[in-house]
Amino acid sequence: MRSEKLIQKVLRGVRNEKIGLAKASDILKGLPSLDLEFANIDCGRYARCGFPEVIYCEGKTVGQIRRIAKEMFTNEGLLLLTRLSAPAYRSLKKTFPLLRYNKLGRVAYYTKKKPQIKNEKAVLIITGGTSDIPVAEEARATLEMMGNKVNALYDVGVAGIHRLLNRMEHFDGAGVIIVIAGMEGALASVVGGLVSKPIIAVPTSCGYGANFKGIAPLLTMLNSCAPGVAVVNIDNGFGAAYMANLINNSG
Amino acid sequence: MRSEKLIQKVLRGVRNEKIGLAKASDILKGLPSLDLEFANIDCGRYARCGFPEVIYCEGKTVGQIRRIAKEMFTNEGLLLLTRLSAPAYRSLKKTFPLLRYNKLGRVAYYTKKKPQIKNEKAVLIITGGTSDIPVAEEARATLEMMGNKVNALYDVGVAGIHRLLNRMEHFDGAGVIIVIAGMEGALASVVGGLVSKPIIAVPTSCGYGANFKGIAPLLTMLNSCAPGVAVVNIDNGFGAAYMANLINNSG
Amino acid sequence: MRSEKLIQKVLRGVRNEKIGLAKASDILKGLPSLDLEFANIDCGRYARCGFPEVIYCEGKTVGQIRRIAKEMFTNEGLLLLTRLSAPAYRSLKKTFPLLRYNKLGRVAYYTKKKPQIKNEKAVLIITGGTSDIPVAEEARATLEMMGNKVNALYDVGVAGIHRLLNRMEHFDGAGVIIVIAGMEGALASVVGGLVSKPIIAVPTSCGYGANFKGIAPLLTMLNSCAPGVAVVNIDNGFGAAYMANLINNSG
Amino acid sequence: MRSEKLIQKVLRGVRNEKIGLAKASDILKGLPSLDLEFANIDCGRYARCGFPEVIYCEGKTVGQIRRIAKEMFTNEGLLLLTRLSAPAYRSLKKTFPLLRYNKLGRVAYYTKKKPQIKNEKAVLIITGGTSDIPVAEEARATLEMMGNKVNALYDVGVAGIHRLLNRMEHFDGAGVIIVIAGMEGALASVVGGLVSKPIIAVPTSCGYGANFKGIAPLLTMLNSCAPGVAVVNIDNGFGAAYMANLINNSG
Amino acid sequence: MRSEKLIQKVLRGVRNEKIGLAKASDILKGLPSLDLEFANIDCGRYARCGFPEVIYCEGKTVGQIRRIAKEMFTNEGLLLLTRLSAPAYRSLKKTFPLLRYNKLGRVAYYTKKKPQIKNEKAVLIITGGTSDIPVAEEARATLEMMGNKVNALYDVGVAGIHRLLNRMEHFDGAGVIIVIAGMEGALASVVGGLVSKPIIAVPTSCGYGANFKGIAPLLTMLNSCAPGVAVVNIDNGFGAAYMANLINNSG
Amino acid sequence: MRSEKLIQKVLRGVRNEKIGLAKASDILKGLPSLDLEFANIDCGRYARCGFPEVIYCEGKTVGQIRRIAKEMFTNEGLLLLTRLSAPAYRSLKKTFPLLRYNKLGRVAYYTKKKPQIKNEKAVLIITGGTSDIPVAEEARATLEMMGNKVNALYDVGVAGIHRLLNRMEHFDGAGVIIVIAGMEGALASVVGGLVSKPIIAVPTSCGYGANFKGIAPLLTMLNSCAPGVAVVNIDNGFGAAYMANLINNSG
Amino acid sequence: MRSEKLIQKVLRGVRNEKIGLAKASDILKGLPSLDLEFANIDCGRYARCGFPEVIYCEGKTVGQIRRIAKEMFTNEGLLLLTRLSAPAYRSLKKTFPLLRYNKLGRVAYYTKKKPQIKNEKAVLIITGGTSDIPVAEEARATLEMMGNKVNALYDVGVAGIHRLLNRMEHFDGAGVIIVIAGMEGALASVVGGLVSKPIIAVPTSCGYGANFKGIAPLLTMLNSCAPGVAVVNIDNGFGAAYMANLINNSG
Amino acid sequence: MRSEKLIQKVLRGVRNEKIGLAKASDILKGLPSLDLEFANIDCGRYARCGFPEVIYCEGKTVGQIRRIAKEMFTNEGLLLLTRLSAPAYRSLKKTFPLLRYNKLGRVAYYTKKKPQIKNEKAVLIITGGTSDIPVAEEARATLEMMGNKVNALYDVGVAGIHRLLNRMEHFDGAGVIIVIAGMEGALASVVGGLVSKPIIAVPTSCGYGANFKGIAPLLTMLNSCAPGVAVVNIDNGFGAAYMANLINNSG
């Protein structure tokens, strides 16, 4: 039985007082995980965390991805695949003809129902440079699928800070801001000093030499002299989006 | 003139249509900073970021702290001092008799008006061990002063994970969760897999050997296999609280 | 003369009191190493350590591997080759038609006699994710060849910890547990807090960004707040299996 | 009610078939943790892991230690305190007159019943130098309290390897070997090549310059070219002993 | 013979054509160094590099400093002592009554003739915070002694960037800018994007946790996305000043 | 409207007193940035920093580079492209037939008017070895395009220091020196002890083993015992040239 | 004029008292370096250091190598090329038909006169494993060309230390020992404790995981608890040989 | 029986053909180590390595040092104690009235017979700065006790390289050179390019900021572009001296 339907059945049972609260909770939390040969799908994630498991495709064969995706879609009615290569997408498209793909962000998704915008406030995504855009697009696709308005300001790094200052009106409608920057990553501190919104900072591995594949902006963002900045892993656009969605819809 | 009063005057001018919106914004954003001999107080922080500048006391003399505090209090009507030693607190107490001190968290604060709880949802603070409590108390004092309900679960690390599982009802009333852990910092991932709330993770420098003064839990938290976790600097209880307040009151 | 036969001869001599204990020990420990052009095979390893030398294939040509394997097999009657590529395996198969290959774990082995299960207790292998399976299979093949029962729980990481908690009955029959995890590696601490069995933890290089090719889970596991956890090198499935076998059969 | 007595009661219930197995297990695993103001004592550790929680004293005041110790002793009937300073020991001695102290290892312990030797096989502790002895003594005291025979070979590092080779008879009676070394930590590899016993390696922070407070021997031990070696945290004598006890008594 | 007088004599010889150019150069470059018991004073530094050797006092006794200072002063007619503690200064003051001391910067200096301002353009020193001021004062004292105008903007970090933007007129009169910042060090990139002047960036060890004693701002500054920024060692106010003086007077 | 023409118009307006100074400055600093789909060209860089934005080509497609280059050239009348591969250059050449390419330095540039030498003093570029030449050529091309005389001494590292000492006459005509070295990077300290000119040091990733891709010479140069040395990022020939140009033309 | 002939002419001049000692020394030390387009050959190296410059081929084109080699051979009458690929060797062979190549060590050399053994004592090269042999062969070829007897013990690492102990007679005839090891590098300490000969230790990048491309054995060797061990760069077989030759022929 | 006398007896036995060579070797190598409570003195070190064990005093109590020293002196007739504090020296002096102490180098030594100079060639010790002298004196005292001539050039770092070039005649009489430098450690490369003698390089922890307690000069020395340089641990003056003595007396 599919988890969505089970959940509805349980909830109806609760409304009708046929299922006690404690028991309902037990059922929901105890949703059996699905044991494939090589993966153990967490079917209770939706009940527990509000969003089903996401398929991280790096290091999996197309065959493995397809098999996990089938089970996930059967159970949850929606799919989110990250770090998916274009050839793998084209192959999966045959099984899921409606699967959509964000090529720059290497994210594919498919939902039975069109995502509903849950909040008038947007998530604003800002990048320091052009090379940070793939990480930004991974975040954008994830956020849109989760039902968020998304605005973006790309390539507005501190070397030409007026590009940012001239566009400060974009800050007003935002509930959360995601700042994505490589090289030295100073953009997060600067934005943090200008607004009173929670900022998720994503260091990227763009840069060379003493950038050390993202360590430099990672340290910069962790040490931000402006408060209101929290950091996710290097190049982790999905993680920033997931966190931003939790915040934007926590009200 | 004090910034709070100025702000009110400007806002009244706006309501009466005596001050245009653009001009009002300019005034508010252009609040002059106050130039002491050794510090340059950012008087526009409240207007821009919703909270006045905080005084980080490490490396400042009691004389410097007192002088900055006087100016801040005159302008903003509230004070928050972090990393304040007990002797320095006792000395400042003579100038600010109502200053309150959280000894474990080494935080002092004073507000003219009692902070109003702005949100029914609490911020839940969880620590892995007993040694993480000072960082947790720094966060708690900051949050309370900013008008948040705070709940705490101390010493519930993963070595005895039932201590956490038995108290999962605390998760329900929380709008944000702060997870504070040293040693290997695994607690953030575990909590991240159990709830659908934004989690702010704080690595601490508690531990020895390969803990490397907090690097081990920092890396653990950045790599959390559960999404919905963002990280602040090592031992940065204040930073976690500031971020949590922004999130909790962003609705 | 082959080391196995020599060992038997020496042991018979000891039983018949034809060889003194001291002398027997000297012979066994002094087994000459075999000097090939490019390798110096340690023929006394079996006598000294209970298992013959293992052939680590990375960086060796198929020709070198074949030559060492021939000598080893002639002397010891069994073969274990780790980090062996599939093409190299296919080539060796011509020389050793009965050689078996674990493709995921990249391990090949061949024993004259089928390995005898020496202990009713199993070794339980647990992985955090799907990408950790190759390391787990390297461990599994090594353990089976050494005569251990092996059970496995794959993809039960802490992001969905109920997948682990639901399967705790697997812990009961295990004498030793191997925990294999990449990303942040929190699984070892969690398991360590749940059981009273020795745990061998293997960090893997699966992950990205601040995972730093396995440094993050390595530090996590070394700092485990739960005791009863010891760590081997990153991705070292063979090393974990070797250690687990020593423990499982030490009774 | 004390956990030991509860356990006996539950076990009698099981024997009399008054308590089902599943329920008994639930009771044992669900032993409530004890919530002090600053600590959350894990009272189920004995049932779950075979040994009660250990009190790590670094960073705790004597008052905190005493309060935790009282609760622990009341519940479990035994006490193990690690990283305990001599003055703190003298103060605690007034409350627990029978508390014994290993000064070098900074470990104190007290058991109602004298520990029973559970296994004829000893744990052999080897150190590279004189400066590694405090870590060794932390391990020795822990092991003795847990009911193990302990033998020791101190200061037999590889700079004079005959000191080790001359004493190889000590290896024979050992079920597990703990190798403790600072500087470059080569001793673990050398011992690993000589015996067929599980080896727990403990890097120490003894050394200077490029020793980097234990990083050098830590890396050496993780990369040991001899298999059968697993590693615990730098200077973690207690952790090595805990693991060795699990192994020695796992048969 | 004192190096200054020797230099004048040589130069007169050149003017009178009594000393050939090549020989004069040889004499000047070959000025004998002065061999004390524990130091080897480089008496040719003035001729070669335009400024005599500077006495770095950390790790030297007051006796050693005094002896080197006497020789230096006799030869060069000026003295610059860096990292000089206040007690050492008070002791040296007895020997050099006119020695001046910058207490915050821990720099002492004495010149026979008052330094002449060599250039109308000032060196502008900017710090991110109050804790960076000691490094700034080390730079300021060095620059003034070398004959530069110095302006300073302290505590104008990016958390309140308007403090900097409001004072941009200070940039106009500057020939070189020194940017000193701890925490994340983003200030250098921001200034680099606003002006067309050479910027010397000095990371400071102010900060905590992932600041790693200045590594975070060091990496930030090396990776500055704005060009025109070069970096000196952590906390090296003297080095920045020396470089700035070379640039300011290179025209 | 092109930024150059706008600037001229504004300046004429200032001369004719038709535009006030404040307003002129506002116009110049507020030059709108140009928003392409994937980049946000900073059109005010020339007015603010004296040189237009430079196109860093690594990680951009030829299509993106061409589009940015067209806009830049239309606005600024000059082009500088760094880290440009030879195939990308050949493709761009079709659009910009006069584009010149420095193959070793992977730099292309095109200026409507031939660069005017602005200063009689040259920039001297010194490399330690042959492998450092690509970085040196990146610097040389940048400097020449910016209107500087350039001299070069290649392969004069400290292993044969007479190669440097024999050519010290090259130092005399230089206003700034760029020292480029890999391996251990000692050349910067040696040159710093010989001259009184500002030195920009560039560590390169040439070397192996403990060179760690440029970390060794980076640390060497930051710790230079000779003052007057400031450092840019590893392999950053462009950055060194940009800084050297600012210094050379700051008089 | 070729440096060898010049040297002979100078020496004859000295013998005939036609050239004073000081002048002779000046000439020899001042041998002009040879300025190619891309390299600056140090022709005085032989006079100064006893061996001409060696051509490190990594990162040079075959054309560059050939041109440098021609000049070197014309001047010095001998050639040593390290890190030379097999294809590059085959191409150079057409120009230098007598060039010999050590394929494993990737070293080519050619001397007009056959190297004379200068010392009865050999240099003994020991490796821990088979994968260390390329580094060992680089050392062997270098040593032989410089006129040293070379003995070798390959694959005698500490996992089977009897392989080393059984061959200790090889130590007797050696004047210097080169120990080459990857993984954990413990072999250097063990050999250092067994002999009274100078030991040059070479860490190699052979290993995986926490070997960190040679950092683990590098730290091991620097921290050797046995004295008499000095270390060269990771994988630097040539450097070890050069040092060993200096020592072996220093008597 | 004392090892020295035993050695003589064995050697006489060999001369008289009363003891076979193999047996003599066995006796000499098998000299029993002396088992104190806390140390295991290696009495065969003299026979095996040509010098008795040295007492490293850091981390030992005066009582432990005294007890080891007594045994050592009784057996070997000579004593070398490194890292010995002045108070500990004064206390030991009562037991060994003839013990001599090098205060700067913190080395004490005592030999029954005055050390004989074994070689006309000196060991030359060079330091970069004044702060490196304690490490140099540790080396000097060790070398003198082992019977070497020692020359020293202190404070001749590359910031004033003529101080070194002016003293190159000191190089001629040296058999080995020890180069000791902190900060960036460039001195080793420079000396390596000037002479044909083996160089032992010692990085020191003198410096600040990016010196990282000696890592900077350590990397510099390992990457030396001049061959003929091998490196010992940071601040390890004794290790350098031990190695230099082996080389100087290896002829």
SSE blueprint:
Eight copies of one chain form a homooctamer.
Chain A: H1 3-15, H2 21-29, E1 34-35, E2 40-41, H3 45-49, E3 55-56, H4 62-76, E4 78-82, H5 86-95, E5 100-102, E6 107-111, E7 122-127, H6 133-145, E8 149-153, H7 162-165, H8 169-172, E9 174-181, H9 187-192, E10 199-203, H10 215-222, E11 229-231, H11 237-248
Parallel strand pairs in A: 3-4, 7-8, 7-9, 9-10, 10-11
Antiparallel strand pairs in A: 1-2, 4-6, 5-6
Helix pairs in contact in A: 1-2, 6-11
Question: What report would you give on this structure?
Answer:
- Eight copies of one chain form a homooctamer.
- With 251 residues, chain A is α/β, with parallel strands linked by helices.
- Helices cover 39% and strands 18% of the residues of chain A.
- Chain A is built from eleven helices and eleven strands.
- Chain A has a five-stranded parallel sheet with strand order 8-7-9-10-11. In chain A, strands 3-4-6-5 form a four-stranded mixed sheet, sandwiched between helices. Chain A has a two-stranded antiparallel sheet with strand order 1-2.
- The mean pLDDT of chain A is 85.
- Chains in contact: A-B, A-C, A-E, A-F, B-C, B-D, B-E, C-D, C-G, D-G, D-H, E-F, E-H, F-G, F-H, G-H.
- Chain C binds chain D through residues 48-51, 54, 175-176, 193-198, 200, 218, 222-223, 227-234, 238-240, 242-243, 246-248, 250-251, and chain D through 48-51, 54, 121, 175-176, 193-198, 200, 218, 222-223, 227-234, 238-240, 242-243, 246-248, 250-251.
